[in-house]
Amino acid sequence: IIDFIHDYVLQIFHCIPTCTEIDFFKSEAPGWHKAFGMQLCKDLKKQLIKDKCLYSFRIMQWKEKYGRMELYCNCASENVYAIINKYSEISENTCIYCGEPAIYITSVYSYALPYCEKCYEKTNNPSIAYVKDKNGEWKQHPDYQEF
């Protein structure tokens, strides 16, 4: 009976969110939210239903790290991690503030953020660590010096 209560009753209450995973995007990375936040959640939910672990899956931490989205979760299938990696790659090439294609990755106090040209001009112009070349490849900016 304890297993039944845990698996079917408590899981329902445990999964009632006080804040959703998408709240990270709205407050900390509005451009990522606009560009792919909802689609990421839909793709994850679809895969979690296939894996039969929708109610046991937990996102432990969701943040920006090294200019890209990082999502840490409890046990998940390789397919879930493939989805997470796909959107991490997309985030690296998406402006964190407006969702347009990023052409700069800045570096200030060990924070790296992807910016489009317009949003970069609105900032206090942190140092540019990487810039996209004509082929769309990230190249280190010639004036950037690592610590």
Structure description:
- The protein is of the alpha+beta class.
- 42% of the residues lie in helices and 21% in strands.
- It has five helices and six strands.
- The chain has helices at residues 2-14, 22-28, 30-50, 78-92, 117-122; strands spanning 59-65, 68-73, 104-108, 111-115, 128-132, 138-140.
- It has a four-stranded antiparallel beta sheet with strand order 4-3-5-6.
- Strand 3 (104-108) and strand 4 (111-115) form a beta hairpin.
- Helix 2 (22-28) packs antiparallel against helix 3 and helix 3 packs antiparallel against helix 4.
- 23% of the residues are buried.
- The model has no long low-confidence stretch (mean pLDDT 82).
Provide the descriptors you would attach to this structure in a database record:
about 150 residues, alpha+beta, 5 helices, 6 strands, about 40% helix
Q: What is the H-and-E element order?
A: HHHEEHEEHEE
What strand order characterises the main sheet? 4-3-5-6
Beta percentage is 15-25%
Please report the total strand number as a whole number. 6
Task: Furnish the topology, listing elements before pairings.
Layout lengths: L1 H13 L7 H7 L1 H21 L8 E7 L2 E6 L4 H15 L11 E5 L2 E5 L1 H6 L5 E5 L5 E3 L7
Antiparallel strand pairs: 1-2, 3-4, 3-5, 5-6
Helix pairs in contact: 2-3, 3-4
